[in-house]
Amino acid sequence: MKKYTLRNLFNDVHLWLGIASGLVLFVVCLTGTIYTFKEEVEELMAPEKYTVEVPANAEPIATNALIAELEQELQGQVVSISIPGDKASSYSISVAPVAAAGAKKAEGGGRPATYFVNPYTGQVVGTPESATAEFFTTVMKLHRWLLLGDSVGRVIVGAATIIFTFLVLTGLVLWFPVKRKNWKQGLKIKTNAKWKRVNHDLHNTLGFYSSILLLIMALTGLCWSFEWYRDGLSSVMGAEVFKGRKEKPMAIAAAASTATPEDYIQQANLLLPYAGDLRLSLPADDTTAVVIQKSQTGFFALAAADKVQLNKHNAEPLKVEKFADKPLNKQVVGLIKPLHLGNVYGTFSKILYFIACLVATSLPVTGTMIWINKLRKKSKPKKQARYGTAPVAG
């Protein structure tokens, strides 16, 4: 009888956890793969909403005039405006409905609606709603909740993600061969071998190459699944995860306003002197600061925004937060979402994440096939013994 080793234990843990969670992980990884290039697909399907024709020697309409025009046309109050660094891109405007006199509640529950606007003409060219957007909403619900709702689906996906973390770690242990001289075999796929060997290499080798990114996806994804995990990670990192969701703009004293949105943008560009995407958030009252976020763009651009808070009345700087000046722990915590989605380093990291997610989607399939092949291999000797030639009596 062979001795049961630690390696056997890792192999059994890897096998049975993989079988138990295979279907859920397949769905989660497949939807994650599809969702990676959500923005690019939406722009491809409806380019008229996202890109505009730039007239020769033309400049965008002044922000003040554009906001005034849109508020009159859309019968609401502009609460934010996103200005892309690309001159051929449309602006994204959020408009909050204004309640009619004497009405208890504005139509639509008072939630801001988003519009895409041509900055050179002021024309509304579309909204985020589309068949493509609905498709990706369904993909997201599958990814996070398996379409089972938050209370049930979130727990199932979270448990599968914990299992996935153990699968990646035990898989790394099993990747290292018993004989160290054979370690190079785990770095390549033997394409000229039989399909069983090719399938094994696809599972073993591709799993190894994508393991780091898969671990990052799993460990960051758990922040959406379990509050206890999110709190624990915040404690370990010394910085609160998703703190930005709770942060409110600074309070200021009420006064007569002389500054305009154009002044806010000019001030932000002076404080953050680089080309990039800019988002201006306008408060509805006179006692809240104006918030501007600005981020760099490009193939390798880091998905991190610098933040400026200005006095609404005179555009004087109240607070400037540059991402590069933050401690490392706060930088890492601030990048939890882009680290999970894959856009942490722009298009470059998206491509890497897409490939890693595609590999992750294949792992439950190739792993199951390896298990079935082993079962068949074990059953052959038993069949041969059962149907073999009977000994001849002497």
From TrEMBL:
InterPro entries for this protein: PepSY-ass_TM
Keyword terms: Membrane, Transmembrane, Transmembrane helix
Domain of life: Bacteria
Transmembrane segments: 12-37, 155-178, 206-229, 351-372
Keyword set includes Membrane: yes
Alphabetical list of Pfam families matching this protein: PepSY_TM
Protein name in UniProt: Sulfite reductase
Source species of the chain: Pontibacter flavimaris
